[in-house]
Amino acid sequence: MTGKCVWFEGIPFPSLDYSPELLREVQESFLIKDEDVLLLTFPKSGTNWLIETVCLIYSKGDPKWVQSEPIWDRCPWVETKHGYELLKEKEGPRLISSHLPIQLFPKSFFKSKAKMIYLIRNPRDVLVSGYFFWRSAKFVKRPQSLEQYFEWFVEGNVVFGSWFDHARGWMSMRDKENFLILSYEEMKWDTRSTVEKICQFLGKKLEPEELNSVLKNSSFQAMKENSMSNYSLLKGQYFEENGQLLRKGVTGDWRNYFTVAQAETFDKLFQEKMADLPQDLFLWK
Ligand code: PPS
């Protein structure tokens, strides 16, 4: 996958909307404010679902905002040219998203009180989701088969680098009070409790009907039908016509694609890389 990438500090990035100069500037000079809220993920972990949920929490369940402004403008990706320019101009508290690994994140964050949510997902499902997504993308080298993408993923030769390094890096922040770790799996299995957890972390209080509206408008089906959130606006320039962000939206889909040998290889690698971390961080086990 890294054949068509932009490289920065040993990590590959997509070839559209990223540059080493900008990544350096973001890391050194972008000022995170105490009142900002940051949503961090490795790609394909449920980023857009989390963004949609937080936007709806901010609008108290009113869908007008999520139905009228593209998701990448509501909560811009700080490391992209488009997102960086928007964020620099934004007044007041900002919602900011990012896929950056911890070592490349704006240094100002680590001295700030800004709240951050890190959303983690079973890397096996991240792999499968990524395979189908990047196959239709125009800004990375496309995988020709799942077998090939599996190799790239386990070697960390995918955009934003190794999933294992990304997760380990950000999880080192887990005891900080301005840091919340959530998983795609808990969001999926008990969405209401997870939204309540997010509200509590962000200090937002919702009435029961407002919470119901957050759940309704951030559902897989609602997002799939919302052109401001489903990436259909990016078809042509960024993706082929058959590309879709909202593919299945389930947990455990990897079981439909991994061979027995791939499953064993992945388990072994996961053990090697993550065994020393508290295993209750990985809810999919
Ligand atoms: S990206 O391109 O990295 O920002 O993609 P990201 O948003 O992180 O991940 C895409 C996967 O998230 C699923 N998704 C959802 N699942 C459940 N409910 C909702 N509302 C939802 N929105 C997005 C999406 O379907 C992708 O997963 P897969 O497994 O491919 O379906």
What does this molecule look like?
The longest helix is centred in the last third of the chain and has 15 residues, at 260-274. The strands form 2 sheets. A 4-stranded parallel β-sheet has the order 4-3-5-6, with helices on both faces. The mean pLDDT is 95. The protein has one domain (2-281): Rossmann fold (3-Layer(aba) Sandwich), CATH 3.40.50. A hairpin with a 2-residue loop joins strand 1 and strand 2 (11-13). It is globular, with a radius of gyration of 18 Å. It is α/β, with parallel strands linked by helices and 285 residues long. Helices cover 42% and strands 9% of the residues. The chain has helices at residues 20-29, 47-58, 64-68, 71-74, 81-89, 123-134, 146-155, 163-171, 184-189, 191-202, 208-217, 220-225, 260-274; strands at 6-8, 11-13, 37-41, 95-98, 115-120, 179-183. The chain contains 13 helices and 6 strands. 3'-phosphate-adenosine-5'-phosphate sulfate binds at residues 41, 43-49, 125, 129, 132, 218-220, 223, 245-249, 253.
